[in-house]
Write a structure and sequence with these properties.
InterPro entries: Clp_N_dom_sf (IPR036628), Clp_R_N (IPR004176). Pfam families: Clp_N (PF02861). Keywords: Hydrolase, Protease, Repeat. The protein is mainly alpha-helical. The protein has one domain (2-75, 109-189): Clp, N-terminal domain (Double Clp-N motif), CATH 1.10.1780.10. The chain has helices spanning 7-23, 30-39, 44-51, 57-72, 78-86, 91-102, 126-141, 149-158, 162-169, 174-180, 185-189; strands spanning 27-28, 123-124. The protein has a two-stranded parallel ribbon. Helix 7 crosses helix 8 (149-158). The chain is globular.
């Protein structure tokens, strides 16, 4: 599938691996793909993000902060946290206790304090694989010949999880991305 990715989409995937690696994560998660998209410049996804109010680093920082906070909660979405609260489980209290005993970020799954997984690059996690698969399906549905970083962004908005929740909180939804980032000219000129 990687051979169908555009240069920009490949850069996002490579950036996600680097984000996971530098953070000591065991796996590349959907959040790492989101962080790599935020780092992109001059691509269809970066233009879409800019059109939706995430053009400048100061505008993108709240997204990064929300991702960091979710990783501190072991990747639980706000909906997960609220559901647990209805059962009488206070996630913030659990995080505080775990971090008190094991250090800040102990629930994130990152290995920074314990070394780098014996030199191995992190593998792609279940959610990240779902995003990659969904990006292929979205490209096919839009009759695009290649998978671009805009397809990765669209996939992040529809695959349930922290990345989609954080994007939605900042006004980046499937509908808004589709509005500012229509199918490529090649797909339109092919009469599709």
């Amino acid at each position: 599938m990687f051979e169908r990715f555009t240069k920009d989409a490949r850069a996002v995937v490579t950036g996600a691996v680097e984000n996971a690696w530098s953070g000591g994560a065991r796996t590349v998660d959907a959040e790492h793909l989101l962080l790599a998209l935020l780092d992109g410049e001059g691509s269809r996804a970066s233009f879409a993000l800019a059109a939706l109010g995430l053009a400048e680093p100061r505008e993108r920082e709240p997204v990064r902060r929300a991702v960091r906070e979710a990783r501190r909660r072991a990747g639980l979405t706000r909906a997960d946290t609220e559901a647990l609260a209805e059962l009488g489980i206070d996630v913030s209290e659990i995080v505080a206790r775990v971090e008190e005993a094991h250090g800040a970020g102990a629930m994130s799954g990152d290995q920074e304090r314990r070394g780098r997984l014996q030199g191995r690059r992190p593998a792609f996690g279940r959610e990240a694989r779902k995003v990659l698969e969904r990006s292929l399906r979205l490209a096919l549905a839009r009759h695009d010949r290649r998978i671009g970083d805009e397809h990765l962004l669209l996939a992040l908005t529809v695959v349930p999880g922290v990345a989609g929740e954080v994007l939605a909180d900042h006004g980046v939804t499937f509908e808004s991305v589709t509005r500012v980032c229509p199918p490529t000219q090649a797909a339109r000129s092919a009469g599709r």
